[in-house]
Amino acid sequence: MDVMSSVVDPGTGAASERIAADLRARILVGEIAPGERIRQEEVAERLGASRIPVREALRMLSAEGLVELETNKGARVPRLDEREVEVLYRMRERIEPLALIQSMPHLSESDLQRIEGIQEQIEQGVDVTAFLTLDREFHMATYAGCATDQLLASVTRLWNSTQHYRRAFMMINGPGRQWIVNAEHRLLLDALTRNDAEDAERYLVGHIRRTRMELTKHPEIFTP
Amino acid sequence: MDVMSSVVDPGTGAASERIAADLRARILVGEIAPGERIRQEEVAERLGASRIPVREALRMLSAEGLVELETNKGARVPRLDEREVEVLYRMRERIEPLALIQSMPHLSESDLQRIEGIQEQIEQGVDVTAFLTLDREFHMATYAGCATDQLLASVTRLWNSTQHYRRAFMMINGPGRQWIVNAEHRLLLDALTRNDAEDAERYLVGHIRRTRMELTKHPEIFTP
DNA sequence: GGGCTTGTATCTGGATCCAATCTGTGGAAA
DNA sequence: TTTCCACAGATTGGATCCAGATACAAGCCC
Predict the structure, then answer these.
(1) Is any atom of strand C within 7 angstroms of residue B14's beta carbon?
(2) In the 51-70 stretch of chain B, whose C-beta falls under 7 Å of nucleic acid strand C?
(3) Which end of chain B is more exposed for a tag (fewer CB within 10 A), N or C?
(4) Which domains, and CATH codes, for chain A?
(5) Measuring CA to CA, which residue among A34, A62, A69 is closest to residue A166?
(6) pLDDT at A11 over 90
């Protein structure tokens, strides 16, 4: 009907996955805010598909923690309060060190170089959006060696669910105290290079825990 | 087409949820084994519905870790190897203590009495299937006070994914060493009654960790 | 005879249409 | 004026039908 803007794009072959990818990106970037409703038909006609694959996509996103579904009432991006985000961060403090420990033995030299490359990009000074992306890439790269799908999926859910509030925090506070993140990342990276699991876990927990405490010190993030 | 056997049943109002509940029960009870495929049409006609709600149900179960979906290849119950189950147990060792700590402050006197009632049932001697159900109820009851959906959902996923291997273990080993479980449960329950979070966490971790080590000592569970 | 190709049956993915539920607005009665 | 109810538009859930992909088996070529 509308211009098939991406005629060339063969997609992944599955429409529902393309739709999920589109919505995922829009939610993570903040284009669709917490509390906002997602109507099936609107998405369907915007992407030139029927509502069926949209529903499948919404189920996928629900499993990723990016939307919540209520029977007969549709889908919306979850709006979390201060306490829920705090618990999600405490989950991160326990799960991500495990992912790191499981991953470490399988990280190659080139993996570590790639991680350091990401950190160098972060240190060159980037805006909030770019930082959020690079920070996520940094940590996910450190977990990439862990072979268990469920573990990676859990970590992804936690990052997804808290993404909006990380952004809100940085929008308000600016990039100030960025040096702390850099220091933490560098210490973590050094521990990985030394293959010191104990230190790596220590720095990672500290990194997440500090972020949690900073976030929960700013209640204005949770009341829009 | 076939006899509308449950014409009277209004269900929960949503067919996909009823279908999901049916499949969930059959998988958890071992009626559908790991590796087994689930065909949409077969389920649909057995429950007198079309394939659409079946697909929704499969997506729900996928989010719960009970099935895995592959594009154009359908759904099957995940078959895990020894290493995957070990990682899932290590996740349990980290996540469930958090759920317990978050839950404890909200557990009432009657909650604790109910938990003790479940433990008394376990101690009266039950078969494997009943034990699996009661053990799950016992622990879930201790987590019931934790108000965060994502935390409970994570715990549920971990129990779901490992359920089959717990059952396989008990089928082989018989109910021997049941006294250990009872002792651990009693110590945990006592710590909860004393409102001693530190002890509660200690006993819970020990309980899960011991189970993990017993399970991973029996590779025959994972090679059917 | 073995390996590759091809054809067909089976199954999943998606589109369209219909039914059931929710939401919001307007009006009537207290 | 406020509250409750009823009705209509909007939105989701489900059924049926069609298209595309996969899997398996028979047949062909080397």
Answers:
(1) no
(2) 51-52, 55, 69
(3) N
(4) 15-76 (1.10.10.10), 82-222 (1.20.120.530)
(5) A34
(6) no
